[in-house]
Amino acid sequence: MSVILLIAEIIFIGGLIVGLYQKNTNLICKSKKRLDGKTVIVTGGTSGMGLEIAIDFAHRGAKVIVACPFEDEGYNGKKKIIESSGNENVIFKFLDLSSLESVRKFAADILQTEDRLDILVNNAGLGTGGRRTTADGMNFIMQVNYFGSFLLTLLLLPLLKKTGESQEPSRIVNTASVLHSLGRINFKNWNEPKMNIFSYSNSKMCVVLFTRELAKRLKKSNVVVSAVDPGAVGTKIFLTAVGRGFGSFVSFIFLVLFKQPWEGAQTAIYAAVSNSAGKVSGEFFRNCKIARPASRCYDDKLAMKVWEESIRLVKLKDEECI
Asked: Which of 75, 200, 270, 298 is catalytic?
């Protein structure tokens, strides 16, 4: 028992040191840019970091569309955003990223009802869950964290391109993770129903690779794309990752030792609104500044292969590709 307590103390002290360093070095987005007349979408924008991002955009005057697969959470999130910002122009729409059909329905609705889209924040994600495969036959984590956002982004690109201007490009912000560095993309088994840390890491590496490849393909458009690492944040993602009981404990520890959702949201907000972030594309941001992702993310051949396989798996039509 004494050995276990010693190990627990070492872990706690180590976490405290890392957490204090992270909190002390965490930067805040200082941009005062207004978003009046602009339309933004935040997936997973009804809880955790996504909710904080959506609240920030609403305070800046944007029309805010938040999306998630839980109606109660969606309407409660919408209510919180309005109460915090005083901005009534907030809409909740149902979106289940684990379903290609749901993604297509959501995108079609947006294209039909909205005349502009200035910012798309692909924030939604999960650590693990009870389901191993989706109805589309994909790894559940991979589809929610990557394939669903990949499809959504490409379907919404026409509206993003229409909206962007040379002096004010529309923006795509993809939420990655420091754990992307553990990713190893093996196309033979990347969709196997394994619910573990490697599926999460692989999904986040794909997010970074997708961001870099998409930026190359958007060079001649007025659309910029960024990937962001929010750092270690205490959110509900741990409730699905390790179970509700222990997950609540882990979330509490992360909230105390690491970042709170508002702190974790800052880099995504920075990538979405700051003038300097709007002048670059394909970059990886951490603590509101450009950083370097894992070296494998600079493998152009790997990025191209991920792109091609993703197109095939999400069943994009030729006319929907870029």
From this structure: 200
